[in-house]
């Protein structure tokens, strides 16, 4: 009856990972992606944190995906009256070890999708799932924007935040505006030697009190940051759709913060501005605080015939907005459960509940979605204490993050788990760091299907 065992909606970061594993297990697997190229509808670029590479799927750790720059250092600059009055760069690693990798989404997701296709999965780009085939409350397939009806045993929803299939299935509800942040990003060209000399292998954050007007009030958005790539940089910032109980005019505010930043902050005016050329300005919405609101966090991530992964399941990290590692982790678990379900001939809700329970047991996923560090920066607005300000930033983007209750706990649990599975895993991690670094130096990665 079914055209496929598994249909995966979305070839962003999570979808191809799930599809590859299902196809390798011999399941007839299809990925549909509404964009022309995988990753095109994600964001332009991002920084994927190290734990995704160390504890995510082996093929990523052992592969040569296209990365733009290893990020070995986080520089936190505290701004008052446009001047940097304090800098914290306590979070750093010597290369080739990296805290994360900056990547452009299009090539990276294309690389992931290429691996899924290589494993036997079919990929249809420029194809959107616009509706579901439902029978007696169970998901039985999708209807595409080309009018096709494609039936499957299991649907994996990897459609990210801008997709309502789980709502159509009656499993999840719309995110509330309090959970969403609007991002604005600027893409500047910068010669590689200039990025190297001005930033080296770092990314920068700029923190200030609200009167500086270089970002959202503390705790109501992402701090002004600069992500660095091979030959470009992306300054960016974001703010909640609801801030301090009101709906701010973000279309006006975000450009205004940027204008204040670029006209006042000396680091920009002296070191960066003379070397960059504006190429594009981008907007995006990401409900990164979904995990902090109990009603949003409690929404199911599975239903009859359907598993929901990554951003579509609200698994973005609430402290940093990092969602790629959780998309990879949940994709891997969803694929395992889909394979078990197809083999058992049971794709009912009662069978699929194990997906949610495994996601909850994962050392990173639940912890990282419910992490309150960024939210709690609001306390500094009330206390106005410089000591508290610096200490919270140090615990967020500084070395303090590794204290047990923050990054340290999931990290130590994951290391212990990995060592139990493979006592030699440390050697594989070192080899990965070395290879990724050499690939970057030589600008040599796996060829992509989109290249001639
Ligand atoms: C501005 C911004 C900055 C970010 N920065 C970072 C960062 O620095 N580090 C980090 O780790 N994460 C970051 N994230 C989050 C990260 O992008 C996501 O968490 C991650 O992409 C989630 O992966 P996913 O597979 O769940 O969804 P996505 O990667 O969003 O993929 C969803 C895919 O599904 C496709 N799709 C959607 N609906 C349909 C449909 N109906 N039919 C067919 N295809 C469909 C989309 O086109 C897209 O390709 C950022 C997000 C934003 C918006």
What can you tell me about this protein's structure?
Helix content is 36%, strand content 25%. It is of the alpha/beta class and 452 residues long. Strand 9 and strand 10 form a beta hairpin. The mean pLDDT is 96. The protein folds into 2 domains: 244 residues, FAD/NAD(P)-binding domain; 138 residues, D-Amino Acid Oxidase, Chain A, domain 2 (2-Layer Sandwich). The strands form 3 sheets. Strands 1, 2, 8, 9, 10, 11, 17 and 18 form an 8-stranded mixed sheet that branches. The chain has a 7-stranded mixed sheet with strand order 6-5-13-14-15-12-16, sandwiched between helices. The protein is globular. The protein has 16 helices and 18 strands.
Secondary-structure map:
Layout: E1 4-9, H1 15-24, E2 29-32, E3 45-49, H2 50-55, H3 58-61, E4 69-71, E5 73-80, E6 83-92, E7 100-104, H4 105-118, E8 122-124, E9 129-135, E10 138-144, E11 149-157, H5 165-168, E12 181-190, H6 192-198, E13 202-207, E14 224-228, E15 232-240, H7 250-264, H8 266-272, E16 276-286, H9 294-297, E17 302-303, E18 306-308, H10 324-344, H11 349-361, H12 365-369, H13 378-383, H14 386-397, H15 404-421, H16 425-442
Parallel strand pairs: 1-2, 1-11, 2-8, 5-13, 11-18
Antiparallel strand pairs: 3-7, 4-7, 5-6, 9-10, 10-11, 12-15, 12-16, 13-14, 14-15, 17-18
Helix pairs in contact: 1-4, 1-10, 10-11
Bound molecules: flavin-adenine dinucleotide.
Flavin-adenine dinucleotide binds at residues 9-15, 32-35, 41-43, 46-48, 128-129, 158-160, 162-163, 183, 284, 286, 310-312, 316, 321-324, 327.
Gist?
This protein is of the alpha/beta class.
